[in-house]
Input
Amino acid sequence: DAVHVHRNMGLDGDSAIWFVAIEASDNSARDTNVKVWTLDLTELMSTKKTKKWKKTREFKMQSIWRLYAFRKKGLPRTEPRFPVWRQERGGGVLYMLLPRLNDRHGYLVGIHVGCSTSKMRIVSCRSLSVPWIDHPVVL
Output
């Protein structure tokens, strides 16, 4: 798939830039790795030497699949697409599209990613008909 399907970048207010990358595994979709980096813009304006990207979160999709709410909602165990990050108190929410296999439907899922995988939880889930499943999404 094209890079725009698995990577996204944006602003978090006026204080940070975020970058999300979904790295597919050759073995299985469950081994797909999701990484979130942030760059603190206030550090760019300071004289500090710590002006660099920081890895905020990293997890495998298998961690999401283990969630009780994931199974209860019957969400597809597919490789996520079109990630969007939103920083919140106590972590952040990662939105992504989980396509169903062999059709043009999917689920827009919001996952609160706390400071550890044990604190992850699904905060939103919406079934969508997605005619543009292979094209960029703007949320």
Notes: Residues 27 and 110 are 25 Å apart (CA to CA). The chain is about 15% helix and 45% strand. Strands lie at 7-12, 16-23, 33-40, 54-60, 81-88, 91-99, 105-113, 121-129.
